[in-house]
Design brief:
By secondary structure, this protein is an all-alpha fold. The protein has a single domain, classed as A middle domain of Talin 1. 72% of the residues lie in helices and 1% in strands. It is built from twelve helices and two strands; from the N terminus they run H-H-H-H-E-H-H-H-H-H-H-H-E-H. 50% of the residues are buried.
Length: 380
């Protein structure tokens, strides 16, 4: 969830008005429906409101992030999305019993596969259609991909092979170590991306365009975006908190309905994790596509890989802390099929990133991998 490139519309624009109304509406509706049995139509409307609250939360997080600047802006965006993801996971885990023991793993793995294949593939596709060849910085993108691969292996692959405890789970000390290491790696990446080597993550300018700045000031393609006022930032901060309360609360209300729908459709429990990841990553997908259409492939890749990194580096530590009072096992280790898909994603990603240029073929390969994952998640 890194490197926002322009301030979202705020104030009295249609987007700003809708984003301002949805969090308040979500909190009011939550107070009305909490603890009640609802008809099917009301459940469907709640799902729509839940989706709107997620989009509103990310919108207001971007407003605050644009006001405070980097590197704190990226942290605010990542923390906001992580709160949504963790809230959805915990809401479903508390009501799902033993069947929800693998929900955190399924959600994080889904986020990695969707970002590293779906969003990356979509960004490359739109950029290649626009410019024939999608260009980006291999130094920054390679560093991001290496961090994602390391975090995914540490938190999702190793638990399937450790021997301290039976089953695909870490022992207590192992889980704490993985959480601390994940958080440390994510924090270091944020520092490198936003301070130490910021120029590695800036868009590659097309011939004839003025290159982006490499210093600490705003990028050339950001100069037109006005910084929100302090009042607007505080209003967005309050609406962000309201949206997060609405998201977590409505997710708790809808948790049993989501699980019943998945069961009634005859789908595996892992599909619940896919649904959560798709919902949380919807704003990131839209933002990446918007930047790719403008030829800013690097920003799309930053968003994709940054989201994958935050999903592991922030969600796993949060779930580790939550597991203290949740009780029950926390299954993190992937199965054989998932490990093969992750290894294939890592190999293809490395080959895509190394040249710093990609065509429609690389985009299609990533999108095919995302489709394979989604199909096998529903048909293991």
């Amino acid at each position: 969830m890194n490197s926002p490139v322009r301030a979202p519309a705020a104030g009295r624009s249609p987007l700003g008005l809708v984003a301002g109304a949805v969090p308040v509406l979500a909190v009011l509706v939550l107070a009305l429906v909490w603890g009640r049995d609802l008809p099917v139509i009301a459940e469907a409307l709640l799902v729509v409101l839940l989706t709107g609250a997620v989009l509103a939360a990310v919108h207001h997080a971007e407003v605050v992030a644009h006001r405070v600047g980097e590197p704190f802006g990226s942290l605010i965006l990542a923390v906001a999305v992580t709160v949504i993801e963790v809230g959805l996971i915990i809401s479903l885990m508390t009501s799902g019993g033993s069947s929800a023991a693998s929900l955190a793993r399924d959600t994080v793995f889904a986020a990695v596969m969707i970002t590293c294949n779906g969003i990356v593939g979509l960004s490359l596709l739109l950029s290649a259609l626009r410019n024939r060849v999608a260009e980006f910085n291999p130094e920054g993108t390679g560093a991001a991909l290496a961090t994602v691969i390391t975090l995914a292996t540490l938190c999702l692959v190793l638990p399937a092979f450790t021997t301290s405890t039976p089953g695909p789970e870490f022992s207590g000390p192992q889980l704490v170590f993985a959480a601390v290491a994940s958080l440390a790696l994510y924090a270091l990446f944020v520092f490198v991306q936003n301070v130490r080597h910021r120029d590695y993550f800036l868009p590659v300018h097309a011939p004839g365009e003025r290159p982006a700045r490499t210093g600490g000031g705003p990028r050339a393609d950001e100069e037109h975006a006005p910084t929100p006022s302090l009042k607007s930032a505080f209003i967005s901060l309050g609406l962000l908190l309201a949206a997060l309360i609405g998201v977590v609360g409505l997710a708790k209300v809808e948790s049993s309905t989501i699980e019943r729908a998945v069961t009634a459709a005859g789908l595996p429990q892992a599909v619940v994790g896919v649904v959560i990841a798709l919902l949380v990553l919807l704003p990131e997908t839209l933002a990446a596509a918007r930047n790719a259409r403008r030829g800013r492939t690097q920003i799309g890749l930053n968003l994709a890989l940054g989201s994958a990194m935050a999903s592991i580096g922030l969600t796993i530590p949060a779930i580790t802390v939550a597991s203290i009072w949740l009780g029950g096992p926390l299954l993190l280790g992937l199965g054989a099929t998932q490990i093969v898909l992750l290894a294939l994603t890592a190999g293809v990603g490395i080959l895509t990133v190394m040249p710093g240029r990609a065509t429609l073929l690389q985009a299609a390969v990533h999108l095919a991998l995302c489709a394979i994952y989604l199909f096998l998640a529903a048909n293991p």
